[in-house]
Amino acid sequence: MIAPIMRHAGEVSREMRYLLTGSYPAFVTDRNPAWTGDEVPVFVYHSVEPKEFAGEMEYLARNGYSTITVGELLSFLEWGIRPAQRPVMLTFDDGYASVWTEGGPILKKHGFVGVAFIVPDWIGRPGYLSWDEVRAMQESRMFDVQSHGLSHRIMQGAGEPDLKGIRYELVESKRVIEEQLPGHRVQDYCFPRAEGSEEAVLIARETGFRTAFWGVMNGRAVNRKGDSPYHIARLKHDFLVRLPGKNRKSMASVMWGKSIRRLKGQPYA
Questions:
Q1: In 124-227, which ranges are E strands?
Q2: CATH superfamily of 2-263
């Protein structure tokens, strides 16, 4: 009981710090923002609540947004090539079963795609995906299955045991997923809890990963041309409905929704 309360308190504290320091983009904080076209927001989900998720996907579709792949994001970061008029990326952490059972049909309805960062050691646990479901996700082409580490280890520490552990997490997560998904290439990594180190980034590069996804980092919550593919910033999905568009939600409404989910004990609300 204490751990979830402490985790949520920490998340509230971080969000307040981001607001006060101007880390969030204009579309989150401004009353009437315009779409600039020079940035790509990446949104993070964990589990999927169907009614809420359906509403958010309807919002994207109704307002002309398109979801993009990691490859398309990389082209934007390196060359400034916009793959769509209003590109956004959807990512799903941890491998909750609801991402596929509840989220899959909704993505299919709109022709949207997302990246599923899974934890191999958690596959098959209650509430999480099975390997059969992971294979179905990848085969659907709606989801690109990538690595969230082998066991969700926090990728920090500069001592030799820490660096060996970090390398093991990366190499083994890649090996297990590729073994379970023959012909599929694992080359994108997401840091658990958005916590990592430059040593971990270097090891990710050395072990064949082309990207690393985080959270809000160094005062940056969106991605622009020239940003490093190993420092991809992400926002929580709540802020998706703050993107410019018809029926855009107020900040008060967004924060109230967060509070309700936290009271219900939803992960990383």
A1: 143-147, 188-190, 211-213
A2: Glycoside hydrolase/deacetylase (3.20.20.370)
